Amino acid sequence: MGQSNGKQVFAPWENPEEKPIIRFGGVTKRFGDFTAIDDLTLDIYAREFFALLGPSGCGKTTLMRMLAGFESPSAGTIELDGKDIAAVPPNKRAVNMMFQSYALFPHLSVYENIAFGLKRSSMPKADVDGRVGEMLRLTRLEAFARRKPHQISGGQRQRVALARSLAKAPKLLLLDEPMGALDKKLRQDTQFELMDIQEKTGTTFVIVTHDQEEAMTVASRVAVMDHGRIVQVATPDRIYEMPNSVYVADFIGDVNIIKGNAKRLDEAKTEVHWAEGQAPFLGTTNSEVQSGAACFFAIRPEKVAITMDRPKSAANAVSGKVLDIAYLGNISTYHVKLATGEIFKAQMANDRRIARRSFTWDDKVWLSWTDTAGVILAR
Amino acid sequence: MTGRFSWFNITALTLGFAFLYLPMLILIVYSFNESRLVTVWAGFSTKWYVSLMGNDAFLDAAWVTLKVAVMSSTLATVLGTMAAYVMVRSGRFLGRTLFSGMIYAPLVMPEVITGLSLLLFFIAIGLDRGVVTIVLAHTTFAMCYVSVVVSARLVSFDRQLEEAALDLGCTPFDAFKSVTLPIIAPAVIAGWLLAFTLSLDDLVIASFTSGPSSTTLPIKIFSAVRLGVSPEINALSTIMIAIVTLGVIVASLISKRAIVRQQEDEQKALQK
Amino acid sequence: MNLRRIFLILVPYLWLLALFLVPFGIVLKIALSDIALAIPPYAPTLDITAGWEGIKRFFAGLDFENFVFLTQDDLYWRAYLSSVVIATVSTIATLIVGYPIAYGMACAPRHWQPMLVMLIILPFWTSFLIRVYSWIGILSQEGYLNQLLLWSGLINEPLMIINTNWAVYIGIVYTYLPFMVLPIYATLEKLDGSLLEAAEDLGCSRSSAFWLVTVPLSRPGIIAGSFLVFIPALGEFVIPSLLGGSKTLMIGKVLWEEFFSNRDWPVASTVAIILLLILIIPIILFQRNEQKQREADQ
């Protein structure tokens, strides 16, 4: 996914020698009685494309505004390149922001918008021209330089906002829901464009989004936030395959979650007893889960196979009745009701034509998966 | 709510606009009346305009009025814009309620009370009445109107624009000058025009705060009109109506052209 | 709190304190003083140089004598009463004249509406004094209206309109009409036409749909417009003194005469204070209405 750009794997967070460009140390932010950020510690490395992901009100925007300098922490320190930036006002920070509303100056042309920041830094006129031209080429806006923001399309406006915030070559670029105003198709194209630009300029990007797909697509690492805390920071594939909590598993993609009791068989395997008289689920041991403790068994629908007969060699198998079928084109999701009442989701690729689909409502089916497909979670 | 434009509506609008405009139309027509008897038509003449031009008292008063209006509306625009900024942006501060009360109170205060209180104040501090006192008085009540007009615009102003300017290296004053002010300029100009008109128009407050050497045009007109209708006043009124109408037409043409140009630009953008 | 912010707040704040609140305090103080044949023509005056004694003597000299005087002389309470009556009657008249105009504007084709709004606002930019003055020629005994009516044979002798309350009503309706039309138009313009279709679909006639749907939904505009006419009409001076003649009693006129003709500053100040006390009620009601509107809009 995001980090597979280049032959060498880009993973500075795994190198203890590497110095982070941004370091949040025990940062807390309160607005009156409300705690927006709660004792948060986080490192972000140079050239990263870092995503802050969470539902609205989780504190991700506050975190970003503290980086830009529009809010200051109530406690803790924020370091940029090893220096505390608490006292630096926004106009003196080597950090630029792309605003959610784009905040393009309506009275200035595209060219003047992009040149706006450069002109503040007493750059010679010729250099400003050169730099703006470079930015216009980068964002493919050369033809629109003389237009006013209201004379261009939404996607073009988004690129102007990006060009304007990149023009000063900031150490760090903050993107607040950069694709929130675009429709779905345009958003996908723009995501790849954004990754491309990030790679070309080598700037560190921090993106705030509530769209998990977007975060997974663009980011080298994703931080999942909830109520002012970071729940998990990891690469997109680890977030998806190895969530550390029910919250993360549930927030990213679709998941079946069954509550049960853990019984550790050995270092590798653990059983989860989830219902009286039912065979336990078999999964990989999670060191956080003590034997005998309550736990959750989480399994993604696409990892669950659905068959008419009981598969012979499956590590986990359970039977039920088809309750509902959601046809999504490329795949179908089957909602299967188990004898115990739980509803399980299983996904199947529609590689056959509709007429030959093998299951229908009220069919008795078997669900099965391997012993490595699910994860066992403590919380 | 359109599409039900009936005869009843047309009649109401016709009568309504006739009611609004006929009195002024009659005034204009009779300003060209030959006779001194205003209500009897005796043929076309421009002699009242000629005699008005020779009337130094009116010309002096007009000059004083114009001076006062330009000074007070400019001062009121600066103060009113500051006040609007404070109201919309400054959050909480000590005495905020009092401040907003003082902004809104002059809007509903009867002019006789405003005039009386200012006059008593000027006497108490020993300030001689003249152009200065009228300017102070007009600035005070006009700034409240300006601040209402400007703050209406500031409320709908996207604060992210200012943050973007700060983010791109502006100092707060820079951000105000190069981003906020150009965007709220139409409201500031409208505020200035409003303050200017209010000052030109004001009789009551000016009567209280003017001195013998600083009679404004409305005071002059009022004392002449008290004696009844006079053709010279008709001529003066016609000139004032003409100036205002011309001003409004020019202003609306300018803004219409701006809108048309914007639409053309958008058209061009769509063709690309 | 930085210096720039303090400066920004202080400049308009101090201006308003000095030129609005302090003058108002002076009015209050003089209202509690007594008339004196001196300069300034009232007593006591505050003598700061006498120190604490001076301040004590100053406060001891203040009393409510003028307020008592105002309640005893029936000229004043008749003037207040007549102001309230005139303002109320003219507000209702303005509503009756203004509503059909606002309704007609809202029903007019969309591309006409900006033009119509401008035509309503345009008189507001012309001098108030001239607009009032223009009615003297129309309403006077040998004025255009009487000429027209005599010529048409509707009347045999000229109507006495000028120098009566009728002329004041006409003057107020004429000059304050835009204040009534614009807020009502604003609410009617937002009205969803499909509501009326729904009402008719459910069995209303056109006129009952108007009374049951349009009028209740335009209520905020009616209330706002009524206050915008009533509040300034109550303290009006120019209209009663030009059109109303000597018989029309309005408190703005009384205050003016008390000050300029009788030179009784303490009584003029007291008249002002009581006028304000009367005005506070409609102003508070008006603000509450606006507040509700704002909340409803959000």
Keywords:
heterotrimer; A: 379 residues; alpha+beta; Rossmann fold; OB fold (Dihydrolipoamide Acetyltransferase, E2P); 6-stranded mixed β-sheet; 5-stranded antiparallel β-sheet; 8 helices; disordered N terminus; B: 272 residues; mainly alpha; MetI-like fold; 11 helices; 0% strand
Oligomerization status of the protein chains: heterotrimer
Tally of discrete structural domains of chain C: 1
How large is the radius of gyration of chain C?
25 Å
Write out the CATH superfamily name of the domain at 56-228 in chain B: MetI-like
Give the overall shape of chain B, derived from the CA principal axes: globular
Label the structural class of chain B.
mainly alpha
Percent of residues of chain C in helical segments? over 70%
- The neighbouring-strand order within the major sheet of chain C is 1-2
Distance between the termini of chain C: 31 Å
Characterise this structure.
Chain A contains 8 helices and 20 strands. In chain A, 40% of the residues are buried. Chain A is elongated. Chain A starts with 21 loop residues before the first strand and ends with a strand. In chain A, 22% of the residues lie in helices and 33% in strands. The N terminus of chain A is likely disordered. Chain B has a domain of 173 residues: MetI-like fold, CATH 1.10.3720. Chain B is mainly alpha-helical and 272 residues long. By secondary structure, chain C is an all-alpha fold. The radius of gyration of chain C is 25 Å and the shape is globular. At the B-C interface, helix 1, helix 3, helix 4, helix 5 and helix 6 of B face helix 1, helix 4, helix 5, helix 6 and helix 8 of C.
Topology summary:
The complex is a heterotrimer of chains A (379), B (272) and C (298).
Chain A: E1 22-31, E2 34-44, E3 49-53, H1 60-68, E4 75-80, E5 83-84, E6 95-98, H2 110-120, H3 125-138, H4 154-166, E7 172-176, H5 184-201, E8 204-209, H6 212-218, E9 221-226, E10 229-234, H7 236-241, H8 246-251, E11 256-264, E12 269-273, E13 281-284, E14 294-299, E15 305-307, E16 316-327, E17 331-338, E18 343-349, E19 364-369, E20 375-377
Parallel strand pairs in A: 3-8, 3-9, 6-7, 7-8
Antiparallel strand pairs in A: 1-2, 1-4, 4-5, 9-10, 11-12, 11-14, 12-13, 14-20, 15-19, 16-17, 16-19, 17-18
Helix pairs in contact in A: 2-3, 2-4, 3-4
Chain B: H1 7-30, H2 47-53, H3 56-89, H4 96-108, H5 111-124, H6 131-155, H7 159-167, H8 172-201, H9 204-209, H10 217-225, H11 231-271
Helix pairs in contact in B: 1-11, 2-11, 3-6, 3-8, 3-10, 4-6, 6-8, 7-8
Chain C: H1 3-31, E1 34-35, E2 42-43, H2 51-61, H3 65-72, H4 74-107, H5 113-125, H6 128-139, H7 144-152, H8 165-190, H9 193-201, H10 206-217, H11 219-234, H12 238-244, H13 251-260, H14 265-297
